[in-house]
Automatic annotation (TrEMBL):
PANTHER family: AAA+ ATPASE DOMAIN-CONTAINING PROTEIN-RELATED, ATP/GTP-BINDING PROTEIN-RELATED. This is ORC1/DEAH AAA+ ATPase domain-containing protein. Pfam families: AAA_22, TPR_10, TPR_12. It comes from Emericellopsis cladophorae. Keywords: Coiled coil. Residues 45-79, 561-593 form a coiled coil. GO terms for molecular function: ATP hydrolysis activity. The keyword Coiled coil applies. Residues 301-390 form the ORC1/DEAH AAA+ ATPase domain.
Length: 1141
């Protein structure tokens, strides 16, 4: 009973006496006496256990109950009020609505504590007398076993004594639970703890009371008739009556009060095996020592416990079993993968999603935010750090700070034991504390599905097998799977096991390596299972081994079943699209050869394509290759599921029904990868990459919202496949360099499938915010395609545009513009100015010019592109709608009323059209909705509330799809902050900006164009709060940063002009009129530099008017004063939203 209750308007019935008196001294005396008897009895029973093996389980349970009761006595002594005279009187039991003082509540609670202590004292004394009567002796050790043991066994066999022991044990448990609950309630009544009261704590105590009441009721029913030696306990009846009153009171609370709150979060590394056995004593010991007892928050300490040992020894299963058994003791159970820094950050992101953090990327900011969320949580939580096997990783960096929470660590590194903290227990070493022979035997027989009871012969054979396996739990489970699936039986297991090991090609661990001897046991078992699959030589077994080889090169966690299903289903879609592309390429080729040089170049490229054509089929597992044939997709899915079922039954992979994904144990994952020769590893790494690639669709396919979500989930697998391929390539190159054959090697041969794979991987990186890696991959693909197909080929153009997008997203507008200009020239030359591809490139180039601040040039290109796309593709085509949305962003930058209204209509049309095509979650539809919101803010204050609602929806959808640290989510956070300022909520806007800037600065740096703009909006939120000094400092810094941006035009990028306008307004509001005028002059010069000759920008005209008004103030001698009654204040341009100073 571990919860505190800070509001408990009830009292406890303390018996039938009308005037029962007690005081702290009497309670202290009673507790001291009870504690003394408990100490003597624990010592007596422990010595008795050493001589009486046959009843050790009964005595162990009694010892545990009495020892816990003794500790509880110490807690009671520490909680007794210090006043010297307190009367504890019984009262009639009130209803839930009765009003009572805090002192009255304390009186009744302590009155019942007094009764419980007296009853416990009576029960323990009775137990002591009974054991001394049976075993002889007194408070010391029992009599010599020479004549007493026989008598003890005889007496204990009698039912009357057995019943007495059971009843005493039961009654002690009842009193123990009741006393524990009373202590929690008394602690909660203490005013020093009132600040932690909340409904959930009420619910926790309500659950405790309900559980204890049911326990007392059930044990009373099981107790049967009372024994003559042990009459029915009045204390038990009183406890049941009191618990009934408490339960009734809790249930009588208002219906809206949530009193039955279960564990809210439960995420463990793996499901507990159905065959789990053993280590029950360790689970019980850890539960009693590890879980934080009730007490004030300021006295709590974060508890950490380390379980270390070799791989496969059952560390993770033990921790999962502990979490499962004690689930209701924790508000939340979470886990993170400690195998590497990247995995620590990525799995912390999974915890972060519970707090609305990122789904797709892993970085320091999202990690810190997740840790902060846990450290701030007052309710009891458990964090499992699994597979923390890298000694170079500072684990302490991944502990939530503060004094709260419980942390379990599994590791192969004994040195991590230093992290054991605030637990009166040494770390468990599963290398030396493997399963006991009996536990291992039971585990094997259960895993082999042998019906119990097990006879002596079976147990003897099983014991020999487990000894061979080194009592390693994972190896035993796998051996049981082999027997269960009839690969062998108990009698011939050793022969089959040795025969399998002779064929092992595994080379990572030598059999005589003492550091890994237990892992070798597991490896032999896995190898046995694998070779048996191979020798079966059925379609299902072949498919299973091939899929295992594929999984070995994907990330070992969360391998979605959808990956294989998409790899099958996408084939027909890609085939149909390829036919369209080939027709387009054939049509274009007729128009591209305009000279003898073009003809010669085409022949050379055809020769290259012939020389580098694939010499065989794409490396796919047989099941995938067959399923990708036309019409076989649905049958292929069934075939794949059957193969995966084979692997699951043999415990080589685990399936998670909730996430519909597969996982592999770290050692199994490494064994499956390293068992093969290097050349085979290279083949299967490529195969894994091809399967992964086949599950991804490139535009114009795969544009739906669910495709985006799926692509985000693939990032760990893409990274792992790439890392494996690169490591294998380096190792092969190093070995090749030692032989004469290296002179004949001209590097890796690249086929079309490899280029497609790289292109698809770059899409995953782009969706996840990994712009640098996407840029690197696409640059390689474009360079290769230019050599092989030529720059004007449709495929080359398409990938080149994707590369320009990567440049744009990576804040490299010059690189993007240069590439787009080349593409536009090629398209105009070979396709003509009205071709859709030409118009698409034109629209993209216009958008890049907008980012560069070349607004007039951008506007001209975008208007031409939109008009052409409407004519060639139609007004409702996706490309037309996206071009319209981008045109609107440029139009609004001219800031005339007509421009703002036109931009609003463009964005609205794009949003409605994209929603109709793809739904509201589509990325393009969200972009357009964001633009609608921003434009509405400039239409007037009447639009502010509508704009804020639209922006809130965009932010919510992006957080749900991408998480908080995705670039598009960060953009939505900035725009949401602007909307918050428009509806006069600047503090909320500031909080939003500071949260987003922490992420942006860590991901992109403080000088990135997006970060600088975000800091400008932070300055805007400070102006709204009249914190002018802070705002000036931020805006001055941003202005200097924007001078040197790569996307500048001179020193006057449009973003900087917006910053200067806000800075001028801030100066004026702060009474610094001269500085404001100087800043206006600089902004006016900048606006002149980006405008066409002879055309004045709308913002320039408004700034001139504001400047003139401030000059009038100065002329009238009011320098440093905002304005005089005779003059109206200056009106600054509305850059972000309509406002009034």
């Amino acid at each position: 009973m571990s919860h505190l209750l800070a509001y408990a308007p009830f009292v406890l019935e303390s018996g039938d006496a009308d005037d029962q008196m007690a005081d702290p001294f009497s309670i202290v005396a009673g507790v001291a006496g009870l504690s003394d008897v408990c100490c003597r009895l624990v010592s007596y029973v422990q010595s008795l256990k050493q001589d009486v093996r046959t009843i050790s389980s009964q005595l162990a349970a009694l010892t545990e109950e009495i020892e816990t009761l003794r500790k509880l006595c110490q807690a009671v002594q520490g909680a007794i009020p210090t006043s010297t005279s307190v009367s504890l009187r019984s009262h009639s039991t009130p209803t839930a609505g009765d009003k009572q003082t805090a002192n009255e509540k304390q009186l009744f609670l302590w009155s019942f504590v007094d009764g419980c202590v007296n009853e416990c004292h009576r029960l323990v004394e009775r137990l002591h007398v009974l054991l001394v009567q049976v075993c002889g002796g007194d408070t010391g050790a029992p009599a010599s076993p020479s004549g007493k043991l026989a008598r003890l066994k005889t007496v204990f066999a009698r039912r009357s004594v057995d019943d007495d022991l059971n009843r005493l044990h039961r009654d002690l448990g009842i009193q123990h639970g009741t006393l524990n609950t009373l202590l929690a309630l008394i602690s909660a009544q203490d005013g020093r703890l009132a600040h932690i009261a909340n409904l959930e704590s009420i619910a926790n105590v309500a659950n405790d009371v309900h559980f204890l009441r049911r326990r007392v009721e059930s044990q009373t029913l099981l107790g049967g008739t009372t024994s003559p030696q042990t009459p029915s306990s009045p204390g038990s009846r009183d406890a049941l009556a009191a618990l009934e009153h408490l339960d009734i009171w809790f249930n009588s609370m208002p219906a809206e009060t949530p009193l039955r709150v279960a564990n809210r979060y439960f995420d463990i590394p793996q499901a507990v095996s159905s065959y789990y056995v053993g280590r029950e004593d360790l689970l019980r010991e850890l539960r009693d020592v590890f879980i934080q007892p009730p007490g004030p928050l300021h006295k709590q300490r974060q508890r950490r416990f380390v379980v270390h040992g070799i791989g496969g020894s059952g560390k993770t299963q033990f921790c999962c079993k502990f979490a499962e058994e004690n689930r209701d003791s924790f508000w939340g159970v979470f886990y993170i993968d400690g195998s590497s820094k990247a995995q620590l950050e990525q799995t912390l992101g999974r915890i972060g999603r519970l707090a609305g953090l990122d789904k797709s990327t892993a970085n320091e900011s999202s990690m810190n935010a997740a840790l902060h969320w846990l450290s701030a949580e007052q309710r009891r939580w458990l964090l499992i750090i699994d597979n923390a096997d890298d000694p170079s990783i500072p684990l302490e960096s991944y502990f939530p700070k503060g004094n709260r929470g419980h942390i379990l660590i599994t590791t192969r590194v004994p040195g991590h034991s230093i992290h054991n903290q605030n637990v009166d227990l040494q770390p468990y070493n599963f290398s030396s504390r493997l399963l006991s022979p009996e536990e291992a035997t039971n585990l094997l027989l259960r895993a082999a599905s042998r019906p119990s009871p097990w006879d002596v012969t079976w147990r003897k054979i099983a014991h020999a097998i487990t000894e061979t396996l080194g009592y390693l739990s994972l190896a035993i489970c796998l051996a049981g799977a082999a027997i269960r699936t009839n690969l062998c039986d108990l009698n011939n297991f050793d022969e089959f096991y040795d025969l399998s090991w002779q064929q092992v090609q595994y080379s990572s661990y030598a059999p005589d390596d003492s550091d890994h001897k237990f892992e070798v046991c597991a490896v032999r078992t896995w190898e046995m299972l694998y070779l048996k699959l191979e020798t079966e030589n059925t379609q299902r077994s072949r498919d299973a081994t091939q899929l295992l080889n594929v999984f070995a090169f994907l990330h070992r966690e969360n391998i979605p079943r959808e990956l294989l299903e998409r790899a099958l289903a996408n084939a027909d879609l890609e085939t149909a699209q390829a036919e369209k592309d080939n027709q387009q390429a054939a049509f274009e080729s007729q128009r591209q050869i305009t000279s003898y040089f073009d003809w010669l170049s085409s022949k050379q490229r055809s020769l290259l394509m012939f020389l580098f054509r694939p010499r065989g089929p794409t490396p796919f597992p047989d099941a995938i290759r067959w399923g990708r044939m036309h019409g076989n997709a649905r049958k292929g899915v069934l075939r794949v599921k059957q193969a995966l079922s084979e692997l699951t039954q043999r415990s080589l992979i685990d399936y998670n029904e909730i996430s519909k994904s597969y996982t592999m144990h770290p050692i199994v994952h490494k064994w499956a990868r390293m068992r093969q020769r290097l050349s085979r590893q290279s083949l299967w790494a490529d195969t894994a990459g091809m399967v992964l690639s086949a599950s991804i669709l490139l535009p114009p396919l795969g544009l739906e919202a669910e495709d985006d979500t799926y692509h985000l989930s693939l990032l760990p697998h893409v990274k792992h496949v790439q890392a494996c391929r690169e490591a294998i390539s380096e190792e092969m190159e190093a070995k090749r360099a030692l032989t004469w054959k290296s002179r004949l090697h001209f590097g890796e041969t690249l086929y079309a499938e490899n280029l497609v794979m790289f292109g698809k991987f770059s899409l995953v990186y782009m969706r996840s915010g990994g712009f640098n890696e996407a840029e690197r991959l696409l640059t390689f693909v474009v360079d290769t395609l230019v050599r092989m197909l030529g720059p004007h080929n449709s495929r080359t153009r398409r990938v080149s545009l994707a590369l320009s997008d990567a440049h744009w997203l990576n804040s490299k507008p010059e690189d993007a513009a240069a590439l787009q200009v080349r593409q536009l020239t090629l398209c105009q030359k070979h396709l003509g100015p009205r071709h859709p591809d030409t118009l698409r490139v034109m629209s993209k180039l216009g958008h890049t010019r907008w980012q560069q601040g070349q607004l007039s040039g951008a506007l001209e290109l975008q208007r031409q592109a939109v008009q052409g796309l409407k004519s060639s593709l139609g007004e409702t085509h996706q490309d037309t709608l996206i071009a319209m949305d981008q045109l609107g962003r440029t139009v609004i930058k001219f800031y005339r009323r007509a421009d703002i209204e036109e931009a609003y209509q463009l964005h609205r049309t794009a949003m409605d059209g994209l929603r109709a095509l793809h739904g509201p979650d589509h990325a393009g539809a969200l972009d357009a909705q964001e633009s609608v919101s921003r434009t509405a803010l400039l239409l007037g204050v009447d639009y502010a509330v509508q704009a804020e609602q639209l922006m809130a929806e965009v932010l919510q959808r992006r957080q749900s799809r991408y998480g908080k640290t995705n670039p598009m989510t960060l953009l939505a956070m900035v725009n949401m902050a602007i909307a918050k300022c428009a509806i006069q909520q600047p503090k909320e806007a500031e909080d939003l900006m500071r949260e987003g800037l922490l992420v942006a600065e860590s991901m992109y740096g403080i000088s990135h164009i997006a970060t600088a703009w975000g800091r400008c909006i932070l300055g805007l939120t400070l102006i709204q709060q009249k914190r002018y000094n802070e705002a000036e400092a931020v805006l001055e810094e941003v202005s200097e940063t924007q001078k040197s941006m790569a996307a500048r035009r001179g020193n006057f990028h449009p973003d900087r002009l917006g910053t200067l306008t806000e800075l001028a307004r801030c100066y004026y509001l702060h009474g610094k009129m001269e500085e404001s005028i100087e800043t206006c002059d600089e902004a006016i010069r900048g606006l002149r530099s980006i405008s066409k000759p002879g055309v004045e920008h709308a913002l320039s005209a408004q700034l001139k008017m504001a400047r003139a008004t401030m000059l009038l103030h100065l002329e009238q001698g009011s320098s440093g004063v905002l304005y005089t009654p005779a003059l109206a204040p200056p009106v600054f341009p509305a850059i972000n939203f309509c406002q009034s100073d």
